[in-house]
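Before any further analysis, backbone shapes were mapped to integers, which produced the following:

***
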Amino acid sequence: MKHYLKNSITIFVISFTIFIFLGIIFLNLIFGNYLSTSTLIITIVTTLFISLIYSSLIISLISLGFFIFSKNKLKVINDFISFLVDFKFLFITILLNYILIMLAIKFSNGLLLFLNFNILLAYFAYFISKITTTKFVLRFKILKYLLLLVWLLFLPNTFYIFTDFIHLQNYLFFSNPSDLSLNTYIYDIESWVVLFSISILSLYGGILGIKSFQNILNTFNIKSKHLKLIIIESIFLLSSFGIYLGRFIRLNSWNFLNIFNHLNVLSKAFTWIFILGFLIIHNVLYVLFNNDKFKLSF
């Protein structure tokens, strides 16, 4: 009974967090940057209250379902917990989203809202990778490879935020950008908030990308280091190309069927320079944040 109570509390906390996450998406899609500060506070409190109610309901339904339909009830619950218990990235994503929403409202800044959406897409890639590692999915190869395809389509979103640095051209840091000899710094808070936001989110998105890639890679028993290296670099190459398509062709992950209409861009030298640059970024972050014993070496 004590063990069950512990599992129930864990599921409750996780489901509560998930509904908060959905509440943030609702705030982004419905209200955008048109909320006043007082309305924002009321909306957040309401979201917390609704999340509490739905979390209480979902814990009851999940517990009832597990104990009715499962023969080995404890094993099924523990497997479910092992998948959900690692919600630190979800918590960080939620925290960053709330901060971005408040900053976007404070400065009436649309870019911060777009960054908000980008980090949600980055987390979705990580979330798909976590689902793929569950025992339930691993039992069905078709489902596993279907989720693998979805993950591959959303992987570029984790590194895409690095391209948002180009928006800094719209913000002032110097008094006279055209003449460096006459330059003095402008202490504009909004400009530096945007710089810090892009820096933090691009790094965090990259970490999500590497961790999700690590999750996917661990579902395959690849013993050959040479083959593993080829797979790693091939996926990084595809991801880099996906970032190019997202930035310059404005294709989203769900527009993957249109990719074949734009393969002619591969004939341009700039395309390959861009891809090479992001290939380096992928590899650097992989070396820094990969927890596996295998590294990018023979």
About this structure: Residues 1-85 form one domain. Residues 37-69 form the longest helix (33 residues).
